[in-house]
What does this fold into?
Amino acid sequence: MIIARGFRSLLGAGLFGLSSVLTACGAPSLNAENVALKIEPTVDGFAFPNFGSNGTSEFFDNNDLALMFGEAACVGGVVDPCQPIAEAAAWAQMVNQARASGHCEGLAVQSAARFNVTAEPKTILLKKDNEVSHGIMRAFATQFLPDVQRDTNKWAKKSLVEKINALSDSFRGASAESMGLFGLKPAAALLSTGQAKFTIGIYTDAGGHALMPYAIEFPNENTVIIRVLDSNWPGQNRFIKIDLKTQTWQFSFSGKDPNNDPCVWSGKSGDLDLTALGTRVTATVPFGEGQSTVKNSLLVIRSKTRNWSITTSDGTFSPATGVAVDGISARSIRASSNIACGAPPLTEYTVQTDGDELELNFPDPAEVFVANDSSVTQLSTSGSSEKISVSKKKVSAGKNVKVKVASENKVISVDSDSSVVDISNDKLVGQVTTDAGQTITQTVDIQTTQAQIVVSDDSAVVTTLTATIVTEKTVAANGEETVETNVTLSLNEVQAAPAVSALNVVKELPKDNQFDPNATTTTSSVAATGDDSASTSSVAGAGVSSTLAPSDSSSSSAPSTSSSAPSTSSSSSVTPSTITASTVVVRSSTTSTSTTTLPPTTTTTTTTTTTLPPTTTSSSTTTTSSSTTTTTSSTTTTTTPTTTTNPKTPGTFAGYLGGSCWDGSLQPYYWSSDGVARAGPCPPRPTEAPPPCTYSDGSPRDSC
It folds into this structure.
C-alpha cells in the first residue's frame, strides 16, 4: 500500500536525475558551479527553534496516523474518529519515544515542502501552535518508514562528490536529457525549476541532526560550502564546510558563531547522508495487511549507555566498539536540539538490519522498538544479562524485560522473568513459566484482541479483552484462580512517551532562540570562506581535531526572543483527498482562524492544513502539512487599520520585513511619506567584494 500518489504530489511533474559526468577511472567529477535556491533563513525557516517532546504538550496521535496512512491505520477503516489498530498504535509509540530530543527532521522536511509549493504565509510567520506542531511531528515520523531508511542508507554509501552533485542538480533543476536516463522518454520529460528535493543528515558521537540544504558554493578548488536551514538557529545563516582534499566535512552545531565553535562537528562521507522528499511520499505503509514483505528489521533504541549489541547472521554490532558490520546500518536519531558544548553524547539510535532474526543484548536500562513485516515489538528493561531474541515468528526474553508485541489489530503484553510470544498470521500466543513452575498460556486472535500477563512472586494475572468485555484472571501460587470483570485494558492507546530518568536522553533545549522578523537587533552569521588560515578545535565526542576557516565578518549574535508576527492568509476550504483501500492519501482538515497582517489590514481566513507531504487537490492547489496554508481568492477584508506601536513618521525605522543584505544581515525597512514601509539601504560593500553568485535562473544573489 502506497502512502501518497507519488512524486507529483510533492515535487511536481517529472523525475530528477544526476547530471554529473563520470571520469575515465569511474569516479564522478565535481560540477563546481555556485547554485542556490531562492531561500532565505529569515523567510523560509521556522521562527521558533527545534524542540523536544517536553517543548509541547502535544504528541503524535491517532489523528496523525489517520492523516498519514488513512484506513490502513484505523480499526474497520474508520478514520474519523480513528481508533488505531494495535500495530499502528505501537508504531506511533515508537515515534513518540524518538521525539524526546527534538524534531529537527520534521522542521527540515516541512521547510522544504512548504518552499516547493510556495506556501503562504511564509514559514517564518508560522507559530508553534498545535496544528503546526503536529505537521512537524508527522514529517519527523517519515524517517522511520522502511523505504525512507533504505533511501538514506543508499545515499550514506555514496561519495561526498556524488552528494554535492545531487544537491547541485536539484537546486539547478532537472533537464530532459538527464531524466531520460531514468526511463522517462525525453519527449515526455518536463523541464523543472530547482527545488528542495533533499534533506541532509549528519552524525557524530554527539548525536544526529537534520538540515535543509539550499545553496552550494565553491570558494576555492578544495572547499565546498553547503548553506542550510538549521532549526536550532532560526533566521541565521548556517553552513556545512566540506574539504575535498581530505574528504571530510565540518559543521557548527552548538556555536553561536559558526566560525569559532570549540565543539565543531566533523565527519567523513559516511557520516553525512541525503534523504529524498519523494521517497517520503511514495513509501509503503509500515504495518498492517497492506505493508510490503521484506526480510529486514528496523530498531529504534533509547539506552542509558552504548553498551548494547545486535547480532544477526551478518555479525555483531555495538556502538561501544563502533566496528561496522555489513547488513547492519546504525545511526543516531535525527532529532538533536541539545546545543550545549561538551554535553554527554546521545544514546538514541535507529538501526536497520538486512535480516529479521535478531539477538539483542541490553545489560543497562533501555527502551527498544523492533519493527518488521509481521509485528512491532516493544522491549522495556532495567538491564538484563540474558539474551533477547526477536524474529518474525517469535519473541523471547528473560529477567527484567517487559515484552509487548502488536500484529495488525492483535496485541499482547508480557511482564515475566521468562517470556515467549509466538507470532503467526492469525494469532499471538504468549507463554510464561512462574517461579512455582506453573505454565500460563494466553492466545490473542480475532475474538480476543488484547491480552496482558503480569507475573509476580505470588501470582500471575492475565487480563483479556474479548469484544467489549475485559476479564482479569488471577492465578495464585497454589493454583487457586479468581476472576474479575470490573477492570479496564487498553493496550493500543497512543500516549506521550513517559519520561524515563534512567535513560541518557535529557537535553538542554535552545534558550531565547526565537527569531523575530521585526526585531531590530538580530544579525546573521556569515559563512566561512576558503581562507587557509583556519583555527583548530576539538570535535565533541570524537577526540580528533578539525578546522573551520575564519569568516570575513565578525558580526554574529543569537536571535532576539520574541513572538513572530501573526500571519495573513485568505482561503476557502479545500475538499479532502479521497482515501481508497489500495492507496493511502493525505486527507485535509479545515481549521478557521482569524489573523492579522503585518501591513495595516485585518482579514478573516479559513486555514486548510494537511500532513506532510503535500497532496494535490481537485482545484490544482497543492497543500502541505499542518504548517501549510493554501490561499485562494475568497477573502473577507475589513478596512479598519491595525494598531501599531511604531508611529509611521517618514524616515523612521519600520522593522525587518523580509529579505537580507549582501553580508547576510536583515534588510531594514523605513516608513515613507505615503505610510508604506519601504526597503532601506544595506551596509556598503567592501572595496574588493567578490562577485555575487546567482540563482538557478541566472538572477544575481546578494548573499553567498
User: Anything to note?
Assistant: The first helix runs from residue 8 to 11. The mean pLDDT is 75. The two ends are 43 Å apart (CA to CA). The longest strand covers residues 207-220.
